[in-house]
Amino acid sequence: MTSPPPLGSSTASHVAETVAVIGAGSIGIAWAVVFASAGVRVQMFETAAGVREGALGEVESMLNDLSRAGLLAEPVADVLPRVTMTPTLDAAVEGAGFVQECVIEDIEVKRGLFAELDRLTDRRVVLASSTSTIIASLFAEDLPGRERCLVVHPANPPYFLRVAEVVPAPFTSADAIAKATELLTRVDITPIVLHREIEGFVFNRLQGAVLREAYCLVRDGVISPVDVDTLVREGLGLRWSVIGPFTTSELNTRGGLRRHAEVIGPVYARIGVERGSDDPWTTETIEHVASVIEQRLPHPTWEENVHERDRAMIRLASLLRHFDNPLATPKPITTSLM
What we know:
disordered C terminus, transmembrane helix, about 50% helix, Rossmann fold, eight-stranded mixed β-sheet, 3-hydroxyacyl-CoA dehydrogenase, NAD+ binding, alpha/beta, 8 strands, N-(1-d-carboxylethyl)-l-norvaline Dehydrogenase, domain 2, globular
């Protein structure tokens, strides 16, 4: 496992381009940092006066944090001028080749905003939403330029978690998908293109599955909330940061995913029924997943791949050994009486 490169250090050629970021909340700020760090000009717009006034300061603060951590390829003084706050929506999209919407999770708000964006921009400009759960069909289906609309949902925060889901609607053009994935790649974000729309997309469905079980376990008196966080932080989270859940299953059991599904699958099926979900893994799905994962493993034998996993996790443990995480261990609450 290697350390992530500084933002903006991708070897891909950076075409001079401007992106409009609509909304200056936490996701809008994060996108501005990602785009500007990769050499892209950013024109922001925000309707709330207080948020608008503090936005550039938030961008500068995050750039400084990234720079101090060695995660910025250029001096902050070179990156910050690429971000401007515009007075109107019209000004924000003027000359922009791509629009990233970052407003609240409200279908009606998005429907109205995308209607305005569709009216104000050239049909060649991609209109992308940062929504975490709402499919594009619900807010863009009736637009004249609906073929350039889609969802680009980033893992949060995207300047650190460099992956984003690209979720096209049935009406989204192949050109719009290509433009979105090309831009993401240029700014050091790995694009994951979903095959079809689905509420919540994939990132939040996976996260939601863990949270559903975690809440049930706490509710049923099995474990404390703090201990759930500790198990994920010190166990599942660390392992999944090196290899995902499918590769974990492949390497945890001699015989790989097929053997894992044979031994553990029935247990997970019973747990699912206990939680009201009778949705066991099918033989066809197991075979498909196993074949795909096996083809992507770096070594020909199970033992070699296990050793590669262990070496990567040892390097990760070494990096984290002296890392002081103030959120990891809750500190006692102290009070003073006046």
